[in-house]
Amino acid sequence: MTAAGFLAGALCFSAASIAAEPTITITCPTGARIQAELADTPQKRSRGLMFRERLAPDAGMLFVFEEAGEWSFWMKNTAVALDILWIGPDKRIVYIEENVPLCRQDPCPEYKPGRDALYALELPAGSVKREKLTKGMKLTFDLPK
Predict the structure, then answer these.
(1) pLDDT (0 to 100) of residue 76
(2) Where are the beta strands (DSSP E) in 1-116?
């Protein structure tokens, strides 16, 4: 699968499946901590956070790809607005898309970084401003083995 061909559905899972999903802690340079679900398989990345009606302010989803690429996202079936951060292999933010709105048309618009990223982090809209996140900042997290 090519990077350009991948479309991740943003924010999904039912409340029941969320509770069962393991999370990792991502620490921002400001010290804020985010509890992120992992989307580390093609199925989890494809589903993303679709159908989620709300997302806690300190919650998110970290998309983990097998290789760096210009991974595209869309908001199909997503009920909450998001901030999306694309993150390089060095865990530095390479691109930010803020306040991505719900998709109200078909086809949904695509959002992509224009730079290679190994990870993408979806957060509730307003998180980037609240935590003063900018391109080049390094996030801290460890993936499970």
Answers:
(1) 86
(2) 7-9, 23-27, 33-39, 59-69, 72-74, 82-87, 93-100
Give which of 26, 8, 32 is closest to 100, Cα–Cα: 8
Give the per-residue pLDDT at 3: 40
CATH number of 7-130: 2.60.120.1140
**Contacting residues for 88 by C-beta, under 8 A, at least 6 apart:** 68, 94, 115, 116, 117, 118, 119
Residues near 28 by beta carbon (within 8 Å), at least 6 away in sequence: 34, 131, 133, 137, 139
What confidence tens digit (pLDDT) does each residue in 82-135 have? 999 999 999 999 999 999 998 888 899 999 999 999 999 999 999 999 999 999
Buried b (16+ CB within 10 A) or exposed e, 64-92: bbeebbbbbbbbbbbbbbbbbbbbbeeee
Give the C-alpha separation, 125 to 119, whole Å.
Answer: 18
